[in-house]
Specification:
CATH class: Alpha Beta
CATH superfamily: P-loop containing nucleotide triphosphate hydrolases
CATH architecture: 3-Layer(aba) Sandwich
Strand content: 5-15%
Shape: globular
Bound molecules: 2'-deoxycytidine-5'-monophosphate
Number of helices: 9
CATH topology: Rossmann fold
Structural class: alpha/beta
Distance between the termini: 20 Å
Number of domains: 1
């Protein structure tokens, strides 16, 4: 079984995807970490992450071990990830790893921006998790504060807006819900309510699929 979880930053996809993976006994891949790892490698090389040659070389060097690096969570890396991820060669370099991961039995939950549209268009279930810009900025602000970072809400809001625009406006694999995605707005939902809503929607979807398969 493959479950695709897509959506903008800080909508709650990571938390939801992890819980779904645990619930269904599936693998879990945070695909944003791959783009962040490519961005970090590009930054570390001293080159410009917006330069396709630099970014593509960095993406080709990404390995599964990179995913655990704590520096991937830094805001400078998030911004650079949004830049390198608009480069088609970077996306191409990371595509097969994601597809191979999804194909491994018993299946997986992948979270990202283009899982339902590009990486796994045949996924059994597609969920598009979203929330208002303000709610997402507030969540990210609280997260950074808890981590001890000196942050200004207006700055977090602006960074989130910039990233949304870049992720949605790019020509290759832009952020958008797949036509057959279940859309979940988490503006007024906490993690538990989001999980319960997703579970109810998935069970309904799978029951419909089983009925169709039985016919
Ligand atoms: O989900 P995240 O914040 O870790 O993602 C970091 C950046 O990577 C994000 O700005 C867009 C990009 N990304 C992508 O283009 N496609 C994915 N499947 C996952 C992330």
């Amino acid at each position: 079984m493959i479950i695709a979880v897509d959506g903008p930053a800080a909508a709650g996809k990571g938390t939801l995807a992890r819980r779904l993976a645990q619930h269904f006994g599936l693998g879990f891949l945070d695909t944003g970490a791959l783009y962040r790892a490519a961005a970090l490698r590009a930054l570390e090389s001293g080159g410009d992450p917006a330069d396709p040659a630099v970014a593509e070389a960095a993406a080709r060097r990404v390995s599964p071990e990179d995913i655990g690096d704590r520096r991937l969570r830094e805001e400078r890396v998030a911004q650079a990830a949004s830049i390198v991820s608009a480069i088609p060669g970077v996306r191409a370099a990371l595509l097969q790893f994601q597809r191979d991961f999804a194909a491994r039995p018993p299946g997986a939950v992948l979270d990202g921006r283009d899982i339902g549209t590009v990486v796994c268009p045949g996924a059994d279930v597609k969920i598009y998790v979203t929330a208002s810009l303000e709610a997402r900025a507030e969540r990210r602000f609280q997260e950074l504060r808890r981590a001890g970072e000196a942050v200004i809400y207006e700055r977090v809001l602006q960074d989130m807006k910039d990233r949304d625009e870049r992720d949605s406006a790019r020509r290759t694999a832009p952020l958008r819900p797949a036509d057959d995605a279940i859309v979940l707005d988490t503006t007024d939902l906490d993690a538990e309510a989001t999980f319960q809503a997703a579970l109810a929607a998935i069970e309904k979807k799978l029951a419909g699929k089983h009925r169709r398969d039985a016919r």
